[in-house]
Specification:
The protein is an alpha+beta fold. The chain has eleven helices and 20 strands. It is about 35% helix and about 25% strand. The protein has an eight-stranded antiparallel β-sheet. A hairpin with a 2-residue loop joins strand 19 and strand 20. Helix 1 packs across helix 2 and helix 4 runs parallel beside helix 5.
């Protein structure tokens, strides 16, 4: 049975997120998603004049491939890198029947996957050279993460993913301009006193172009400028392992101390390469429909009143020079329910307890974006 919500979402992905043009080759990569959604995308891409290519994957099979730790992993990376170079647009729709599917894959196997497959294909080729969008798919496992029934979560998912991103895009512009004129950032909150520079690094507004759902503006700290401590209050899922109560201490840009509920595994990841202990991204989140964490980073990093700070690889369009096979978005929520906190730019508080206080930024507060 055709679900009109599939066609509405396909329209957002094709006409807004990636703006598919006539003659463009579009790679659609689907992990455990319904055939009907793929068909809706194929038809919508063709209507826009694009050429759809489809790759169907399953998380259980992906786990088996990653665990091999043999020549098949770099070979798969080479194969998919070649394929990615042939396309103009990438759409990644990623469902998972079990979000812990990779929890028993060794750190060594994940490191090989990151360095020989994931990074060459996605960070080195797809991100800088294609128009792209990635999103999750609302399976029952995702509803469990959100502590919702499957039906209620599907309704929430489609409302969030098909909101008015045009309104959001207009409201972000003053924040982008402010970030690009700012030198020093100072963040305070429970267990957190962190400062760093963002001088001369571009700020990138995100309103449904690369992620669905969306709602953030990101930049990167000057690599060696980060100083102080941050105590994250949001659980994070990385390579199938859940981490809570992450606390990082920085000196001259480098994480010199890292603790959490699984300190040994945390430090294994941060020791994967030299760049993993430096920060590649700082972003402010403001999606008005996302207010609680659900262990899915594409949602959690957009929580209204949040920011995220990212050990590892920097994006080339907001580049501080840091290179790593790791890119780990860690989220801090600063609404009153989560302890509050403030973000100051060059000594001026621009957001207090999750709400923007500058007049030119208030269009990003939840009541304004909801309409």
């Amino acid at each position: 049975m055709r679900d009109p919500r599939f066609e509405k979402l396909a329209h957002v992905l094709v006409t807004h997120s990636t703006r598919v043009q006539s003659g463009e080759r579009v790679l659609v990569e689907g992990f455990d998603i319904p055939d009907e959604m793929l068909i809706a995308l194929i038809r919508t891409i063709r209507e826009a004049g694009g050429t759809p290519l489809v790759s169907i994957k399953h998380q259980r099979i992906q786990r088996e491939l990653i665990m091999a730790q043999d020549d098949s992993v770099p070979f798969a990376g080479d194969y998919e890198a070649y394929r990615m170079k042939q396309v103009d647009v990438y759409m990644g729709l990623r469902g998972s029947y079990n979000v812990m599917e990779l929890s028993d894959v060794s750190a060594e196997a994940m490191k090989q996957y990151d360095q020989k497959w994931l990074q060459p294909v996605h960070l080195d080729i797809r991100v800088p050279n294609t128009k792209w969008v990635v999103l999750r798919w609302p399976l029952a496992s995702m509803a469990q993460q959100a502590n919702m029934s499957t039906g209620a979560f599907e309704d929430f998912y489609f409302d969030v993913c098909t909101m008015d991103y045009g309104r959001m895009a207009s409201a972000i512009e003053p924040l982008k301009a402010l970030m690009e004129s700012t030198e020093q950032v100072h963040i305070k909150g429970p267990g957190t006193d962190l400062s760093f520079s963002i001088k001369d690094i571009p700020a990138i507004p995100c309103a449904g172009e690369c992620n669905i759902p969306d709602g953030e503006c990101f930049t990167a700290p000057v690599r060696d400028s980060v100083s102080g401590v941050i105590q994250f209050n949001t659980p994070t899922l990385y390579h199938g392992v859940t981490f809570t109560d992450i606390r990082l201490r920085f000196k001259d840009g480098k994480i010199i101390e890292a603790t959490c509920n699984n300190t040994a595994r945390l430090n294994e990841i941060l020791d994967a390469d030299e760049g993993a202990r430096y920060t590649g991204e700082f972003a402010i989140g403001f999606n008005p429909f996302i207010t609680e964490p659900m262990l899915d980073i594409l949602f959690d990093e957009k929580i209204a009143g949040s920011f995220h700070f990212t050990p590892g690889q920097a994006y080339e369009d907001a580049d501080n020079g840091n290179r790593s096979g790791v890119h780990w978005d860690m989220v801090m929520i600063q609404t009153p329910e989560y302890g509050g906190g403030e973000i100051a730019f060059d000594g001026e508080v621009i957001r207090q307890d999750g709400l923007f206080v500058r007049k030119d930024l208030r269009g990003l507060n939840p009541e304004a974006l909801r309409g």
